[in-house]
């Protein structure tokens, strides 16, 4: 079941995982990180859920890519299905930018 934001509401803290993928940049190297809410404490898990809900409720506006700029793809995995968001770094809304930062800081390469 989802709560309308793409974030799962069943299964406790493991009901959501977030995968972040960064492409582009000067070197064109792709990187990815994944974080499961089952791997973090309740406080961080709650913050990740809130940011995921905000990001889905207010997706990034369409924006043209910038030369040598990064492009971010964020996939929110839940039992009810996945939600995907994508934006160039220059157009990341604050909630999505914070979500990306937390997944990069606490997640692992898949």
UniProtKB/TrEMBL annotation:
Q: What is this protein called?
A: Uncharacterized protein
Q: Which domain of life is it from?
A: Bacteria
- UniProt-listed InterPro entries: Emfourin
Matching Pfam families = Emfourin (PF20242)
Query: What is this organism's lineage?
Result: Bacteria, Bacillati, Actinomycetota, Actinomycetes, Motilibacterales
């Amino acid at each position: 079941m989802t709560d309308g934001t793409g974030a799962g509401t069943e299964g406790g803290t493991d009901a959501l995982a977030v995968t972040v993928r960064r492409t582009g940049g000067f070197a064109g190297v792709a990187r990815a990180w994944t974080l499961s809410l089952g791997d973090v404490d309740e406080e961080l898990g709650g913050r990740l859920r809130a940011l995921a809900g905000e990001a889905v409720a207010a997706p990034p506006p369409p924006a043209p890519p910038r030369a040598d700029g990064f492009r971010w793809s964020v996939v929110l995995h839940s039992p009810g299905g996945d939600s995907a968001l994508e934006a160039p770094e220059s157009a990341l809304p604050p909630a999505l930018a914070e979500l990306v930062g937390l997944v990069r800081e606490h997640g692992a390469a898949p």
